[in-house]
Design brief:
CATH architecture of the largest domain: 2-Layer Sandwich
Number of helices: 15
Order of helices and strands: EHEEHHEHEEHEHEHHHHHHEHEEHEH
Distance between the termini: 38 Å
Radius of gyration: 22 Å
CATH topology of the largest domain: Dna Ligase, domain 1
Oligomer: single chain
Strand content: 25-35%
Shape: globular
Largest sheet: 5 strands, mixed
Bound molecules: 2'-deoxycytidine-5'-triphosphate, calcium ion
Low-confidence stretches: 1-12, 353-359
CATH class of the largest domain: Alpha Beta
Structural class: alpha+beta
Helix content: 40-55%
CATH superfamily of the largest domain: DNA polymerase, Y-family, little finger domain
C-alpha cells in the first residue's frame, strides 16, 4: 500500500503528500541579533552559565568559522579573541519560538519538533511546495526579522536532509525521482538519527558515504549495529522513512560516557556533565522524545563505581531542566576523584501534546 499518489501519469494533476521542514538558522544567536542590530555580521555565541563556568549553546556562522561550536566549554571558547558571548535568555527565545509557530500554523498541518523546527505537511506538487516555502521564508523575515532554512521532500527524514543542504538561509528540494541519485554521495552522518557513535562504527567499516553502505556485507553491518539499526539504516539509505512504520518503538534509554583527561573532583565535572546533558537532550529532540529519569554514573580513581538516578514528575527534553537534575545527582556522588563520568536518560516516551503541557 502506497500512501503517495504516483506522479508517473502526467495526465493526472500531481498531488503528493509533501513535507516542509522549517528550521531557524543559529536560532538563539539570531534572536539576540534581532534585538541588537549592532551584533549583525559579528561572531556571536550564546552560552548557558554553569556556576562560574559555562557552555556554548549555539553560535552564528561567523563564530563557527572561528571554531566556536555548540557544547564547547565557555572557558575554551573565550580563548578565541574577538567573539561576543551572550548569556542565554531562554524566556525571550521561547517567546519568539511560540510566536513563530503560532504563525506557521496558518500554512498547513504543523508538527513542531523542537524549539526552532517543525514540519509542515501539505498536499500538492513540488512547485507549489517551493512557492509556499518562499512565502514562509519571506514572511518570517518580514514579521520576525529572522533567517530560516526550509527542506522539502516526500517524507520527514528526506525533508530533514534537504534542510541540511538548504542551510543557511535557503530552500532545498529533494524529489522522490532524484532521491536515489542524490543520496549516493551524501555522508552517512547526515542521515536522520545517525549520530556520532554510529558514524564512527560505519567509518571503521569503510562506510563514509551512503553508496558505501551497499558495497559492504550486510551481515557485517548487522553484527556491528544490530538488526534493527541496520535495517533502519538501509531504509534511510534508500530514502525511506523507517520511523514512519515504528512510531511506537522507542529506546529504553540513551546514555553517554567519558573518560576524563585527568581525574577530577565532583565540583570540577559540572561543565562536562552539562555538555553531556546538552548532547543527549539534542538527541531526544531530534528523535522527538522526552525523558523523565536522569542517571549519573561515576567511576572513581580507585575503580569503584557509583550510579545515582532521580526522576522528575514530568517528561521533558529541555536541557536546562535535565541539567538541574544531573547537578543534584553529581552532588550526591562520593567525595573521591572521578576518572570516568556517564550520563543517561531513561523512562523515554514520544513527545505528545500531553507531554508538552508540562513543559
Ligand atoms: N538547543 C537546545 N538544546 C539542545 C540543542 C540546541 O536548546 N540540546 C538550542 C540552541 C539552538 C536551538 O536550540 O540555537 C536550535 O538548535 P539547532 O540544532 O537547530 O541549532 P541552531 O539553530 O543554533 O543552528 P543551525 O543554523 O545549524 O540550525
Ligand atoms: Ca536551527
Ligand atoms: Ca533545530
Amino acid at each position: 500500500m502506497n500512501e503517495f499518489v504516483s506522479g508517473a501519469d502526467y495526465n493526472v494533476k500531481e498531488n503528493y503528500n509533501l513535507f516542509l521542514l522549517v528550521d531557524m538558522d543559529y536560532f538563539y544567536v539570531a534572536c539576540e541579533i534581532r534585538r541588537n542590530k549592532s551584533l549583525e555580521g559579528k561572531p556571536v555565541a550564546v552560552f548557558h552559565a554553569v556556576g562560574e563556568r559555562g557552555a556554548i549553546l549555539t553560535s552564528n556562522y561567523e563564530a563557527r568559522k572561528m571554531g566556536i561550536k555548540s557544547g564547547m566549554s565557555l572557558s575554551k571558547a573565550r580563548s578565541v579573541p574577538g567573539v561576543i558571548f551572550i548569556n542565554a535568555d531562554m524566556d525571550y527565545y521561547l517567546k519568539t519560538s511560540n510566536e513563530i509557530f503560532s504563525f506557521l500554523k496558518g500554512f498547513g498541518e504543523l508538527e513542531q519538533v523542537s524549539v526552532d523546527e517543525g514540519f509542515i505537511l501539505i498536499k500538492g506538487n513540488y512547485e507549489k511546495a517551493y512557492e509556499l516555502a518562499e512565502s514562509i521564508k519571506q514572511n518570517i523575515k518580514e514579521k520576525f526579522d529572522l533567517p530560516c532554512s526550509i527542506g522539502i521532500s516526500y517524507n520527514r527524514v528526506m525533508a530533514k536532509l534537504a534542510c541540511e543542504f538548504a542551510k543557511p538561509n535557503g530552500i532545498f528540494v529533494i524529489r522522490r525521482s532524484e532521491a536515489q541519485e542524490f543520496l549516493k554521495d551524501v555522508e552517512v552522518s547526515k542521515l536522520y538519527g545517525v549520530g556520532e557513535k554510529t558514524t564512527k562504527i560505519l567509518n571503521s567499516l569503510g562506510v563514509y558515504k551512503v553508496k558505501d553502505l551497499f558495497s559492504i556485507d550486510p551481515s557485517l553491518l548487522r553484527s556491528k549495529l544490530g538488526d534493527k539499526a541496520s535495517s533502519y539504516l538501509f531504509l534511510l539509505a534508500k530514502g525511506e522513512d523507517p520511523y514512519k512504520y515504528n512510531k511506537e518503538e522507542i529506546p529504553k534509554s540513551i546514555s553517554t560516557i567519558n573518560t576524563l583527561e585527568k581525574d577530577l573532583d565532583k565540583e570540577e565535572i559540572l561543565e562536562i556533565v552539562f555538555s553531556m546533558v546538552y548532547e543527549l537532550s539534542s538527541e531526544l529532540q531530534t528523535n522527538n522524545l522526552v525523558s523523565k529519569t536522569v542517571t549519573v554514573r561515576a567511576v572513581y580513581e580507585d575503580f569503584d563505581n557509583q550510579s545515582v538516578s532521580l526522576s522528575l514528575n514530568f517528561y521533558t527534553n529541555d536541557y536546562k531542566k535535565l541539567f538541574e537534575v544531573a547537578k543534584q545527582l553529581v552532588n550526591k556522588l562520593d567525595n573521591k576523584k572521578i576518572r570516568r563520568i556517564g550520563v543517561g536518560f531513561s523512562n523515554l516516551k514520544k513527545l505528545t501534546e500531553e507531554s508538552l503541557k508540562n513543559y
